[in-house]
Amino acid sequence: GQSLEQPSEVTAVEGAIVQINCTYQTSGFYGLSWYQQHDGGAPTFLSYNALDGLEETGRFSSFLSRSDSYGYLLLQELQMKDSASYFCAVRRSNSGYALNFGKGTSLLVTP
Amino acid sequence: DADVTQTPRNRITKTGKRIMLECSQTKGHDRMYWYRQDPGLGLRLIYYSFDVKDINKGEISDGYSVSRQAQAKFSLSLESAIPNQTALYFCATSSNDLESSHEQYFGPGTRLTVT
Asked: Which H/E stretch holds residue B52?
């Protein structure tokens, strides 16, 4: 079967660093994406890993270990506006490379 | 103007009614998707289409149907709405390029309530 696990909630302080983990169990794994969603608004793309290692995009970085079926999103220099839900999503070659999303992690940034 | 638009933005309907949600995009993308979002359950894929002649079922297609009228338009229908279809529905698009199709562009969502 398939599964995607990520913490339901994370709290961190403004200016700090936070890591949101995602573990997956799936067939046909091709890559791992991360999306951000504010308060029921449209999800927006953050980052993508198809190969092992770290991808950096400004304050956000994403990591993938295919052998461990594990990835994470790292947010640095947290700002209040980073309070949102973050979703990992698996891209699968045996479903037309469509995305299957995790249940999301609600991040609360406090002063 | 928004690249991906959805109509209506909010809809309240009664059990048993037929309802259609519409999605249009101006990004020129071939791939289009419909998701539903329920609190605590994330986004679940209902249907996806890679071009006008290609329609595929997602994780939760039962009770739904779709129509790809043109490259830019992808509609989701609930033939006979039931209360547990109350949810936030998102349309999304992506390019057909394998190297970039992981980046999906979402519409603003349609909040549907079935009473």
From this structure: none
